[in-house]
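Here is the promised in-class demo. Please do not try to memorize the tokens; focus on the logic of going from shape to residues.
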């Protein structure tokens, strides 16, 4: 179920796999203060162990770079926007100074080539302090470590983004994997809320996607 705070903007329907789903759990957001634009990258992923096609991986990197550049040109330091693309679906997090700036961000990112869906989690507020951003980075590291430690879930299947204590989980996953990763993430210190931004696949799809000898890989 989609939480009221998550704004989804479909751009095109994809014919494969399953629909993009976002659901928030735990406590509501809070925060305060404005500024700065950039792109958040979930980390380098080995093509051999990533469930996306190599083409989708390259397109995701291109989407992030193009969106970041265009936002920087249009908004300068009036916004701090993180653009995270997974399988051509884009998650927007961060802060903007006004509703007009938020609409500008949406228009710019929707216009980037190959974007097929948008999840808008931008807040109209001031930017968090360096201490708060450092805390978010620590939470992300803890979630990745927790997923990596779990023996019944593939850490490499998940991209992890944290903003103001809210953890966003992205990936091509089964319902079983999504539920397990969510349960693990909820136990991590510092996590205030979990938002799931998954594209669901079946267990049969998963079996076809799994490499014969999967190499261990850290969560993104």
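The designed amino acids, position by position:
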């Amino acid at each position: 179920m989609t939480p009221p705070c998550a704004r989804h903007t479909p751009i095109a329907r994809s014919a494969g796999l399953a629909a993009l789903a976002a659901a928030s759990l735990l406590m509501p957001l809070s925060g305060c203060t404005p500024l700065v634009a950039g792109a958040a990258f979930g980390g380098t992923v080995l093509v051999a162990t990533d469930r996306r096609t190599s083409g989708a991986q390259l397109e995701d990197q291109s989407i992030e770079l193009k969106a970041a550049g265009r936002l920087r040109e249009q908004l300068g330091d009036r916004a701090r926007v993180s653009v995270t693309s997974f399988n051509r679906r884009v998650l927007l997090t961060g802060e903007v100074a006004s509703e007009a700036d938020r609409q500008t961000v949406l228009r710019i990112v929707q216009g980037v080539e190959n974007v097929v869906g948008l999840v808008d989690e931008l807040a109209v507020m001031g930017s968090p302090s360096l201490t708060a951003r450092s805390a978010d980075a620590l939470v992300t590291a803890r979630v990745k470590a927790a997923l990596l430690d779990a023996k019944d879930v593939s850490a490499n299947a998940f991209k992890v983004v944290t903003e103001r204590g809210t953890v966003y989980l992205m990936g091509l996953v089964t319902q079983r994997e999504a539920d397990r990763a969510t349960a693990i993430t909820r136990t991590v210190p510092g996590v205030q809320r979990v938002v799931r931004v998954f594209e669901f696949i079946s267990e049969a799809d998963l079996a076809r996607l799994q490499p014969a000898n999967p190499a261990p890989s850290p969560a993104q």
